[in-house]
Structure to design on (579 residues):
């Protein structure tokens, strides 16, 4: 009806008045850079963002045969193997605990949610300089000292690789509250009559969770898992801030974005390789994201 | 059975308390560090509370010449505020246009917007850097702000929201002779405050806490955001740990306040942006 009140010219004009500014920006700042980057990835480009010499697929071959690039993918796999299940379990657990509590529910929810306000830089700072500082004045070492354990240099040794504990626990603290909120929202959508029916049938505790709550949480769980995976793929902040020091970043524990950062923007400024790497990572992550949209039916017609 | 139920309740409560303590410990450590003297903080004996409270740290972080924290706070505020306002206006308008104006190619435009959701911004930092540097925007506020104004997710969510907006009100306004523009600003916007608050708070938090992009673009101390300044502080050789904690405290204080005051909207924003079903 709205449309019938307006002429077609009017419709075209107003559509672009509303959508034009956003769409133009999106094209300029998303489509153009990606296009340029794909173009650049076929060229030699050191210290410059204008291509110098056409090299075909050489940059892609460089990247795929580069041990450091493959290591970065392996680092992601290890990181995801740690962070995805632990975050999933902890955020589900906190959501269930908070949802069941009757006293001070808002307080408990806030406590777990509050770290979401902290940046990864601040989290990394507390983890690196306070909790896991290698000195005996660090919180973890002070606590271990009570048990007679001598100070552990958490970040300066690779055997055993304690740095994983530091990095994974930091991200856990920072992101559990976020996913807890998603689970809480999903829990609220579980129809109350299902619980009532279960209670009449005499179902208790674990049985209720297994047969009522969990199946109802399945869509949310799938979404959380994929979000966790995509976010783990993009990990940069805590790795950079926890592991980089005044002597630079150590050669190990470089996830894809850290690797890309040092390849494209480090001393080499190799934009040809960097662009090729970005294209490969974009394709990888888009594949995961596509799986996500399949599950979420994002962008589906309504 | 009753006995078992009580045992469960006790277990739940204890888990909740242990979790609460663990999640608050980092905040405690941050506060403890921020008000300690350097000597107390690095001494081998553990102090639960600073033996002497060092209030001078607050003035000292703003006095530091190598890390211009005041300037960084100003930059972060400018960036977060303009990105929040910008995203709300740009995505709000675009979302409305896509939801309501029956343009022939509307579906194609919508598809072109949503397909970029598959490509997370973090992965495109190399191509975006290439573009921004050829525009000559390195180390400028423009370079820090403008590329973050075009959030496909926000537009997508606004469209979904406007689709559920009651049509009758808009039709009545159209009969009264209001144009699309008038309907949007005078009828739709005043009734979308809650949704805009949810998207706005989440955008603000993301903008304030952003790190990779400001690190890549802000190459001079004058263009550092709070996060980049902190990070530089953290990875530098000669840093005083107590000042580091104080700087971090200053950096998170605005957001902590916002969290306590606007939590309702933030929770809604997280729910909307996390799972859009």
């Amino acid at each position: 009806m709205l449309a019938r009140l307006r002429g077609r010219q009017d419709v075209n004009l107003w559509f672009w008045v509303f959508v034009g500014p956003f769409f133009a920006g999106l094209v300029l700042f998303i489509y153009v850079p990606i296009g340029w980057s794909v173009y650049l990835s076929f060229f030699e480009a050191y210290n410059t963002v204008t291509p110098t010499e056409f090299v075909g697929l050489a940059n892609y071959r460089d990247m795929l045969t580069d041990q450091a690039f493959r290591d970065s993918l392996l680092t992601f796999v290890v990181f995801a193997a740690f962070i995805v299940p632990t975050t999933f379990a902890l955020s589900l657990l906190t959501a269930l605990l908070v949802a069941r509590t009757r006293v001070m529910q808002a307080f408990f929810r806030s406590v777990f949610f509050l770290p979401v306000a902290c940046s990864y830089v601040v989290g990394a700072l507390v983890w690196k300089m306070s909790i896991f500082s290698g000195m005996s004045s660090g919180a973890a070492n002070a606590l271990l000292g009570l048990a007679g354990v001598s100070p552990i240099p958490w970040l300066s040794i690779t055997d055993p690789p304690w740095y994983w504990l530091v990095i994974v626990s930091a991200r856990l603290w920072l992101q559990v509250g976020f996913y807890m909120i998603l689970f809480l929202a999903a829990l609220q959508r579980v129809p109350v009559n299902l619980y009532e029916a279960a209670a009449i049938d005499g179902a208790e505790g674990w049985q209720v969770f297994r047969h009522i709550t969990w199946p109802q949480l399945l869509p949310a769980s799938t979404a959380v898992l994929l979000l966790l995976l995509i976010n783990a793929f993009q990990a940069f902040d805590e790795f950079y801030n926890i592991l980089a020091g005044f002597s630079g970043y150590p050669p190990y524990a470089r996830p894809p974005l850290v690797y890309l950062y040092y390849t494209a923007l480090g001393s080499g400024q190799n934009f040809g390789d960097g662009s090729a790497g970005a294209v490969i990572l974009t394709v990888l992550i888009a594949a995961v994201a596509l799986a996500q949209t399949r599950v979420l039916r994002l962008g589906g017609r309504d | 059975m009753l006995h078992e139920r009580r045992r469960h309740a006790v277990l739940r409560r204890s888990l909740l308390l242990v979790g609460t303590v663990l999640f608050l410990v980092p905040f405690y450590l941050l506060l403890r560090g921020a008000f300690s003297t350097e000597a107390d903080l690095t001494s081998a004996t553990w102090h639960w509370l600073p033996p002497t409270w060092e209030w001078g740290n607050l003035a000292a972080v703003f006095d530091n010449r190598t890390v211009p924290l005041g300037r960084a706070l100003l930059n972060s505020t400018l960036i977060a505020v303009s990105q929040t306002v910008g995203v709300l206006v740009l995505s709000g308008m675009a979302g409305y246009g896509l939801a309501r104006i029956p343009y022939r190619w509307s579906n194609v435009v919508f598809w072109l917007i949503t397909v970029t959701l598959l490509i997370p911004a973090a992965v495109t930092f190399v191509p975006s850097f290439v573009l921004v540097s050829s525009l000559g925007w390195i180390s400028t506020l423009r370079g820090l702000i403008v590329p973050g104004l075009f959030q496909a997710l926000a537009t997508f969510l606004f469209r979904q929201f406007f689709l559920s907006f009651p049509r009758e009100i808009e039709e009545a306004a159209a009969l009264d002779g209001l144009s699309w523009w008038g309907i949007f600003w005078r009828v739709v916007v005043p009734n979308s405050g809650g949704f805009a608050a949810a998207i706005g708070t989440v955008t603000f938090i993301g903008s304030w806490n952003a790190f990779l992009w400001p690190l890549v673009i802000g190459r001079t101390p004058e263009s550092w955001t709070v996060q980049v300044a902190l990070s530089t502080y953290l990875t530098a050789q000669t840093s005083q740990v107590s000042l580091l904690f104080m700087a971090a405290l200053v950096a998170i204080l605005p957001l902590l306040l916002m969290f306590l005051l606007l939590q309702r909207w933030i929770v809604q924003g997280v729910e909307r942006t996390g799972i859009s079903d």
